[in-house]
Design goal:
The chain is α/β, with parallel strands linked by helices and 224 residues long. 55% of the residues lie in helices and 13% in strands.
Length: 224
Amino acid sequence: MRVAIAEDGALFREGLVLLLQAAGHEVVGCFEDGDALVAAVATDPVDVAILDIRMPPGPTGGLVAAERVRALHPDVGLLLLSHYAETHYLMRVLEIGADRIGYRLKERVAGVKVLGDTLDRIAAGEIVIEPVLARRLVQGGAAQTDSAISKLSERETDVLRLMAEGRANNAIAQELYISAKAVEKNIAAIFTKLGLPGDATVHHRRVLAVLAYLQAQRIDGSMR
């Protein structure tokens, strides 16, 4: 893939370049701020842009730059990186788009295999969410007795957690050692219990399911 990087930390930036090159990708641009990346992508198209969430300009310059890239070049994949798994960052990421996008911890992509898998999934159109954050959101939402999420069975919650990580049906089936048809059945039950509209596309409803977790987590946090 052709990849552009925006990261204000010199050491991590250079490390990403080495990892990407080791995985066979072409790094076409490496920048210290989001504005420079947006300008470069406008004249030199890329497959995926990797951006640090917290970098110039502003406290969340990477998110702002990602929004601009998605608006101008909707086919470009986006990978947002941070040292922290924060719910409000994930909310912003999901608001940017529902496909070809990811939010991962920097420490987790500091290896060729994980970084390569993440980029492959983003390029394939998936949403990739840091697993620890996805688990936290699902568990936090499921703990609320007054939430629709609490109506999910243990199996449905497992399926939902993997959906929140951006896993496709076949990958969920392999992870849980069940059939693809069983995954489809559980997903249908999840949509029904969460009250998601039946006339929406399956992909759109998957995104709505993730947003339902986030909303439940927000409500739970505000009551503490």
